[in-house]
């Protein structure tokens, strides 16, 4: 029986321009998300094809609370298999990545092919003609659970639901085009890391979908003119408004007065002393010939594709209960990058990452919000920048429309 979560969290009559604090902290809400979101009609990011270039190479992905093995097949295809033996449920793989010829359970030695087909079980025919599996047992009925898989420009997505629409319809034409723009050349993995966040996973996604904070919270962006709302840019909404792209062009900024005259922390050079000692940290080049220096793209519910100057990465926020989450990063470049570009991407990735000037602040702010709302879960956040709807404002990023778009999808699936 499905619990009536509307008795736990009451959504305000204003709709998605008010977000009840209870959705970030209520155990019953989190329990519903496991089935409605992470096992629902949703495409989830699983990894990069560049991580598994050879037959038998695998990486572990996390879809909600479900561990998934993403493995390269002999014919070049990719399978996504639930990391759980079909006998007792023991995990088959423990390392985050590796290479194997088959999957063997350590508990009772049930063995599975790379495509999840069951191959054998220890003592399947008994010992000395006695015991063994029942005559009704069929190996072909006991393979590993699979996800549907979609590959696009080196990115791998999977879904548990047969009702999930084709990826192109799910994401929308503009978002598919940007994936092909950023990932349309052979990719090279530069590194992987993760950070623990002291907050609900949805607070991080809200943060990513909110371009309004980027030059305020991240004072570095404003001081160093890396990202300001006065730059040419905008927001593009994906299919149904659930996903989005925020973009800007660094070379078009003319907003010194807007930042300096409004007493914004991000307009004061004193926020970072006299600036960076190593100015090569902000040396950039135009990767795509279109002048766009920043794109942040989400695919509902928890995937991010990042182009921050020349720092390219994919991110996934993994829920770890109501009050904790894990942000996983894969930084990448291109196989044809020369040494200058490779070093530039690494520098910029370190500047953006959890030990740098962006991800550290994003992780911190979610924890502060989680603490701030703890005593008043019957109250709600105000999300009215840019209006009430999810339609983008042409040529502007001064909007929370993409945040409201996320909650539109969330409420649809959760029945709230």
CATH homologous superfamily assignment of the largest domain: Naphthalene 1,2-dioxygenase Alpha Subunit, Chain A, domain 1
Series of H and E elements = EHEEEEEEEEEEHHEHHEEHEEEEHHEH
* Shape assignment: globular
Mean pLDDT: 90
CATH topology of the largest domain: Naphthalene 1,2-dioxygenase Alpha Subunit, Chain A, domain 1
Low-confidence stretches: none
CATH class descriptor name of the largest domain: Alpha Beta
Ordered list of secondary-structure elements with their pairings:
Elements: E1 18-20, H1 27-36, E2 44-48, E3 57-63, E4 66-72, E5 78-82, E6 97-99, E7 103-104, E8 111-112, E9 118-120, E10 146-152, E11 155-159, H2 167-171, H3 173-183, E12 187-197, H4 201-208, H5 219-223, E13 232-237, E14 244-249, H6 256-260, E15 294-299, E16 303-308, E17 311-319, E18 325-334, H7 339-352, H8 359-372, E19 380-382, H9 401-414
Antiparallel strand pairs: 1-19, 2-11, 3-4, 3-6, 4-5, 5-10, 7-8, 8-9, 10-11, 12-18, 13-14, 14-15, 15-16, 16-17, 17-18
How is this structure best described in words?
- The protein has nine helices and 19 strands.
- It has 416 residues and is an alpha+beta fold.
- A seven-stranded antiparallel sheet has the order 2-11-10-5-4-3-6. Strands 12-18-17-16-15-14-13 form a seven-stranded antiparallel sheet, sandwiched between helices. A three-stranded antiparallel sheet has the order 7-8-9, with no helix packed on it.
- Strand 17 (311-319) and strand 18 (325-334) form a beta hairpin.
- The longest helix is centred in the last third of the chain and has 14 residues, at 339-352.
